[in-house]
TrEMBL record:
Belongs to the binding-protein-dependent transport system permease family. It comes from Leucobacter chromiiresistens. Gene3D superfamilies: MetI-like. GO terms for cellular component: ATP-binding cassette (ABC) transporter complex. This is ABC transporter permease.
Length: 342
């Protein structure tokens, strides 16, 4: 009996082409429902605040939004923020360097400073600074255990604005010190060693090698601290300094007996200024993060390459040479440096 065996389709057999894959997007109906519910809640809140809550008194908000006293208070809030942050950054850098000092006394003083100002509330610190003119009524300068050369009245020397700046700056310096220290520690130790090997001093090493690399880590939290400082200025009433934005809004509400509209006015100004600061922070972060998130281009070979085979048949165009051990012959690179004939 003869059996016919089919070996399958031959090379000329036609195969039907497979249909292209149709990708179907995964649907999330509950996610859409949740988004719609959120939009409805926001719309209801806006409608209720605009028409059903007379306590908001939007006419009063518009009346005092650009009042001279409010604008002046916003200016004082910005001054407190700028002056306090400048002092805090300088002190923070100094304390961060002290924390890394090999001298145990210097390191201990820096640690005690951080422990004191980070461990007590900023409101309590501002109250204390407001009482400094009462505690130290005068400041005398001269040789110890002798009659003072001259005496200064503390109230005349330190205004409430100055005391507010000092209180905010010292509290913020404790946090800036840790931010700067974290940035310095993020730079590889080999960078410092390489700068020392090149003969750079401490100042040039920090300013040209370490700090530019550490700024990528320092800038984001510092921007957050600036925004936080602007809002913390509302606490300077503890000094007491009442010419800031919140203090002026509170004074006006004490006369009009409408605190809610004035709180809205102050909030609008805080939001406007913080929005500007956030934009500045974004551009600063992008400037100091240049080259970090960019993928390097793939390196391409400078010469053509190809495999070098062992020649078994003599070819005059490609001379062969015996191997190092006297064995098989090999073909050296030819035509151009690095091999790869044209």
């Amino acid at each position: 009996m003869t059996h016919t065996h089919s070996s399958g389709a031959g090379p000329d057999a036609s195969h039907p082409e497979s249909a292209p894959i149709e990708a179907i997007r995964l649907r999330h109906p509950w996610r859409t429902v949740f988004a719609v519910v959120l939009l409805l809640l926001v719309a209801l809140f806006i409608y209720d605040a605009a028409f059903n809550r007379p306590v908001f008194n939007w006419g009063e908000v518009g009346k005092y939004l650009f009042d001279v006293r409010i604008v002046s208070g916003a200016g004082y809030a910005l001054q407190l923020t700028v002056y306090s942050m400048i002092i805090a950054v300088v002190l923070g850098v100094a304390i961060a360097v002290m924390r890394q000092s090999p001298n145990p006394v210097v390191k201990s003083i820096a640690w005690v400073f951080l422990w004191l100002f980070r461990g007590t509330p900023v409101y309590v610190q501002l109250v204390f600074w407001g009482l400094v003119p009462t505690i130290y009524k005068s400041i005398s300068l001269g040789v110890p255990f002798t009659e003072a050369a001259f005496t200064l009245n503390t109230k005349d020397l330190l205004s409430y604005f100055t005391l507010a700046v000092i209180g905010l700056a010292l509290n913020e310096a404790a946090y800036m010190a840790e931010i700067v220290r974290a940035g310095l520690l993020s730079v590889d130790k080999g960078q410092n060693e390489a700068a020392t090997a090149l003969g750079l001093g401490w100042w040039h090493t920090m300013s040209r090698v370490i700090l530019p690399q550490a700024m990528r880590v320092i800038i984001p939290p510092t921007g957050n601290e600036v925004i936080s400082m602007l809002k913390t200025t509302s606490l300077v009433t503890a000094v007491p300094f009442t010419l800031d934005l919140y203090g002026r809004a509170r004074d006006i509400s004490a006369v009009t007996y409408q605190p809610v509209p004035m709180l809205i006015v102050a909030s609008i100004w805080y939001l406007a200024v913080t929005s500007i600061l956030m934009v500045g922070q974004y551009f600063l972060e992008r400037h100091f993060a240049r080259g970090v998130l960019q993928r390097p281009d793939v390196m391409k070979p400078t010469v053509e390459t190809q495999s070098v085979g062992v020649v078994g048949v003599e070819d005059p165009a490609h001379p062969t040479y015996p191997g190092a051990g006297g064995g098989e012959s090999i073909v050296p690179p030819h035509h151009r440096p690095g091999g790869g004939g044209a």
